[in-house]
Amino acid sequence: MNVLGGALAAGAKLMAMVRTGLDRLVGDGFAALRGRSVGIVCNQASIDSNIDHILDLIEPYHRSGALRVRAVFGPQHGLGGHTQDNMIEWEGGADARAGWPVYSLYGEHREPTPAMLDGIDLLVVDLQDAGARYYTFVWTMALCMKACALAGVPVLVLDRPNPVGGLEVEGSVLRPEFASFVGLYPLPMRHGMTIGEIARYLAATFFPRCELRVLEMEGWERAMLFGDTGLPWAMPSPNLPTPDSALVYPGGCLIEGTNLSEGRGTTRPFEIVGAPYLDGHRFCEALNRIGLPGVKFRPIQFEPTFNKFARAMCEGCFIHVLDRRSYRPVLTSVAILQEATRQAGGRFEWKAPPYEYEYEKRPIDILAGNSWLAESISRLVPLAEIGERMADECATFEPTREKLYAPTSSERG
Description:
Helix content: 25-40%
Oligomer: single chain
Distance between the termini: 38 Å
Strand order of the largest sheet: 3-4-2-1-5-6-9
Mean pLDDT: 93
Shape: globular
Order of helices and strands: HHEHEEEHEHEEEHEHEHEEHHHHH
Number of strands: 12
Strand content: 5-15%
Largest sheet: 7 strands, mixed
């Protein structure tokens, strides 16, 4: 390694204040996996604090016979994060590094079959969640836990930070009758939990036969946003290119249930919202008058390269988050949808199904986890009233969430 390379590697290690579950596993020389035949659920963002991928890190141990990798499983967007849009399925194959079989869990199968789990005596899950209920990686994990409970295969979840923090909770809580692949079990929209805490919730509430272990982080505090962790950001999926896009996503994903563009096909998805039928200046002036906390809207013109309104000129807003702590992504997106309703009249519409394997219920309703939110937006119910109803739902879920907290560094003393 040259001098510059050595300095960069040392810098990366010094900057990281948080050790993820993968960092701890690497630091222990994969002790928890030695002598096991493992399956690994991961994607391109399954890296350690030194920007090395879990499959590259584990391959020498597999080669030496210290452990055996039997299969690799990838979630939505593919093992390499190569499928850009929603509802684009991908097929498995073989991993180029070691020839391991790679199974798609976003296609013909969304949970491992008994044949896929054959010969595996431990399933390792290492996925970076986005902190929002709609993000399908936690539901891929849930279906893996379900399959493993039936097959008698233990599950090890390597915990990672919630990129939008572990304190703030916002939005409505999913009602069971609106369950779908963007929300299989009750959680608030912005849930304030780590993927390891969600795994414990699922095991305790829905999969008691699942033998679960969570390898917790070290150094993580609930108030941390991703930029506070010192960890490198790797896009968990193609349309979350930065921590800023992740911050708006817990509300911005609601735009997918409408005929507004959520900025897919631009360089800043979810931070950009608009449509050909909007006047960007008028739209932003109205939104800025509301006085939403921590945010300012800037008029913008954009032309998506794919998805809604591909190659068509759109106008709308760029969402500038000025205060990450006070910003409320769900309430902000509700305000955007209400203003589109006011200004566009009948040109603003809710999308029709199918969406994420749901063929009957409207996309907006399975995203919201209810039907009342879309109805309230359409009727222009006062924003404060909508916010209060969502806050009440979150308060009802809070005791469940608090029971699942992993101890943070300060709590360990």
